[in-house]
Each structure stands twice: as structure tokens, then as C-alpha cells.
Fold:
Amino acid sequence: MPASSKKKTSKSSAKKTTKKAAPKKKTASAAAKTAKPAKTAKTAAKAAPKASGKPIRVDYLLEKLGEEHGDDQTLPPIADNLDLMLFLRLCQDMRLADAKKAFLALRTQFVDWNEVRISPVDEVREVLKGAPDTDALARFLQGFLMSLFLEQHHVGLEFVRDKTNAEIKAFFKKHPGFADSSLGLLLERVNDYPVVPLEAYAMTFLERVGLGTSEATALSRQKDLYEHVPKGQVLGLSLLIHEQARYTCPTAEEKLDCPDCPLKRGCPFPAKVTPRQRAAALKNVKKSK
Structure:
């Protein structure tokens, strides 16, 4: 074979090799077809809230829950121990805003708690709007006030200031109907009991946001929380946590309302919720609305 033909053959094979090795360039239209579509605002809204994965700080908890509840977090004037316990009893049956309205109505429409005790039950029931069973709540309030009058010969709870924690607990054991957290808040007020009193369902909420673990006892977690709460804010924080745990972050995961939670951007829990649980929660929220 002539040398010239060998050169041509080697050149043509080199060209073929070069063509195969070179990657194909995508046209603008091809790139547009293969590119992933950007999330729309609607898609982003449905996406699970981003979680930091880190525990929420107490100051952040106070700030965000305070912003969420606004004026509703402002507590009514609590003049004495009886005011405190009766307000907390209203909070057991009502949302915080409704309990505040009912308490203020009881304090302004009646001369004092003794008048509440002796008034017709219908008049007391009238100001308890927001409770699921206004008649039962009105009768409980009047019954407790009557018991105080018969035992102490006056309507008041100031006598507990001279009692030990054990004696106060024994007294309320004879008068059931108050939550353990309410009794704890009374002890904190009277005897500087160093805890942020919380019910079991509220402790579940704390675990979800990273404040404590189920390995520690409930009492130790409440004491740890107390160490980080500014003085004078124990009552307010306890009420806000219970409100959040009852209506936005309940124990039953299918009833969670993470999208409307003020803590969603810092809470580590949403990332743990499965798509199925999230779908059930959204369905439940729509039904409630």
C-alpha cells in the first residue's frame, strides 16, 4: 500500500476516534426539557417545615409562643391564691383566651367570690362561654367555694401560706378537680417550688421540641426547665406550653398541626413525621376548620 494512502487512513481513523470521544452538546431546548422544574409557591407551602435538628432554646420558646398568642398571653390580674386556682381551673376546660374572658367576667359581674358562691347557677353559667360543659363547670366552682366556706368560715385560700407542700397537697386531695399542674403552680407561688409544672401531654410536647428526653423523670425535666425561665414567667410559660400541647401539638400524631405551629422552623420533630401522618394531620385540620 502506498504511503499516501496509509496517511489518509490514519487521519480518517483519528477523526472517527475524536468524534466518538467528544461529548454531545445539549441545545438550549434539550436542556430546558431535562431540567427539574422549580418548586412553585404552592408546592413549597405544602412541603414539610425545615427543622434545625437542634433542641429549641427556652428563650426562643417564650418568644415564639408569646408572638403566637399576642394579647391572649397577658394574664388577668391575679390578686391571691384563690384567684390563681380558679383561673387555672377555667384554663383546664377552655382555651386560654376564653378562660381569661370568663375570669374577668366573674371578677367584674360579681362583687366577690362569695357572691359567685351564693348566686343562682344560671348566672354563673352565663359567663362561662367557651367551656364544653358550662353547667358542670359552674357547679364545680360553686361547690368548691362552698366547701371553703364551710371548712374555713370564709371564702379564700390564703391559709395555705402557712402550710407545707405535703399539707397543701393533702388539702386538695380532699377537693379533687384541679390538675396536678395547677397545684404545682400554687406551690411555686406560695413556697417557691422550683419547677415549671406540666401535665403529661405537655411533657410530650417538650420532648418533641428537644427540651428534655423521656429517659429523665418528669420532675427532673420540670426542674431543669425552671432553671432557664426568667423570674416571674413560670405561670405564663406553663399556660402557653399547655395551650400549644393541647391544640397545636397534641399527643396523637394524626392531630398534629405542624404547618401552623410558630415553632416549625426551629423544631426538630416535623422531620420525624411520616408522609402518612402528615397527610392525616392535614385532613384532620381541614375537618376542624
Observations:
- Residues 241 and 251 are 13 Å apart (CA to CA).
- Residues 3-21 form the longest helix (19 residues).
- The chain has a mean pLDDT of 81.
- The chain has 15 helices and no strands.
